[in-house]
Amino acid sequence: xxxxxxxxxxxxxxxxxxxxxxxxxxxxxxxxxxxxxxxxxxxxxxxxxxxxxxxxxxxxxxxxxxxxxxxxxxxxxxxxxxxxxxxxxxxxxxxxxxxxxxxxxxxxxxxxxxxxxxxxxxxxxxxxxxxxxxxxxxxxxxxxxxxxxxxxxxxxxxxxxxxxxxx
Length: 167
Hints:
Blueprint lengths: L14 H20 L4 H5 L10 H20 L25 H21 L6 E4 L2 E4 H27 L5
Helix pairs in contact: 1-5, 3-4, 3-5
């Protein structure tokens, strides 16, 4: 893996800056886990029979970013998560997936999410998903948890691929 260039988490900032900083740290962690790998390595399902791959995680998290920030928080109404009839995520079908396209999509969604967070009047701004209501504070906290969980998967996938370990 490349040198650790992750966002420094703030220690003496307001709540929004702290939550956004921790989320960016988690985003940077995923990017770090994927850095320097070939297309084949990014697509590899390293832990059969699981469909998980690093590229699949990037594609999935782009959809999660879009879902929570653009659809729930901003109400854009974009197509939601795509699933196969068996309930598995299309994002994990990576045999023909283009890593450059996947990373570009993920970066666009992360950038848009940052814009929406910065523009929100407060952490109490509410997003909606059907009848459910989610304050921005909850969305940011949930996204930190979502990335942290999947970065644990990324740790195992990366170590299996080339022996790299680390935070």
